[in-house]
Specification:
Layout (H helix, E strand, L loop, with lengths): L2 H16 L10 E13 L4 E3 L4 E2 L3 E17 L6 E4 L2 E2 L5 H11 L9 E7 L9 H16 L6 H11 L11 E4 L12 E3 L7 E6 L10 H11 L6 H18 L2 H20 L10 H15 L5 E4 L5 E6 L3 H7 L4 E4 L4
Parallel strand pairs: 5-7
Antiparallel strand pairs: 1-4, 2-3, 4-7, 4-8, 5-6, 8-9, 10-12, 10-13, 11-12
Helix pairs in contact: 3-4, 6-7
Bound molecules: ligand DP6.
Amino acid sequence: MKKFDAVQLIFQPLLQQKGDSVWQPQREKGLAFAPTNIALCKYWGKRDEELNLPMTSSLSVALPEKGSMTHLSLHNKNEDVVVLNGEALSPDSQFVKRIKAYLDLFRQENTWHLLIDIQLNIPVAAGVASSACGFASLISALNDMFVWQLSMRDLSLLARLGSGSAARSLWTGFVEWHAGVQSDGMDSYAEPLKMEWSDLYMGILLVTREEKSISSREAMQRTIDSSVLYANWPRKVARDMVIFRQALQAKNFSLLAGTAESNALTMHATMLSCWPPICYFMPETIAAMQRVWQLRRDGLELYFTQDAGPNLKLIFTGKNKDKVVEAFPDLDVVKLFVE
Ligand code: DP6
């Protein structure tokens, strides 16, 4: 199924109710914020590349104040313009092309064009999930401007069509994205878990701000095509998801954070076994990991996770915050549950 047909399917009830006016902006502006999310149990591999349908379910936690604020307004020229952190981007950039293609899913011929003003307070494409919050805030801002009043489930289905991990970026807290089994993807959406953990922290350890060497999309596909270890990945995820649920229920920090670290390392090990190999580690990444392991041997409850980039996200609780910051002075510390 094509993305366009998936959109028609999601909009079917709305189209019956409102007809083609659904495809016209009802307000001059649209505005939405979406937090970024970091997976504790990673999404790695698609069962459908067109619809971003994952091979496995995944589980994330949001960074509540880090993310993307998207302002939309009508643009009277003949094309969409994307402004990122105050700078107009070239229409030829990959990011702009992706956004335009996404808007085309909702555009009947050339009826409207938008000025898309995105404010991101996280580095773009350095494995800090900027596309996740980018597409989640874009679909939420469209929902505002077109007054669709879609359910969160529908927004999650639509965000997924922009970027898989965007399906999880519509809530704060813990979020599970169900892999689903249907070929149209209507059962592949995310949902928040009713669970808070006020003492939980994540620290972003930036090794570099450079764009990643290979996109997640391409890396996932290469992993499926060439890694003999990939066959084990769904098994690892199934087991980890059970452990995550237990850890959340029992508020067992070392079980939660240790499983997240092991999950991320398994994902990267699987990637290393691709051909050509995929290695998101930089020497500084490895040095930071070894530092974490040493601190842990010394008794500090500190763990990490790593996405498709060289940066690490450290996971710890409030009581160890000062010690962690002492060990990593440049750490950008985020409290995961703000009261
Ligand atoms: C390693 O969601 O960026 O961050 O669906 O192709 O846009 P596309 O991929 P994307 O992949 C995220 C991969 C990850 C793990 C995760 O967030 O679950």
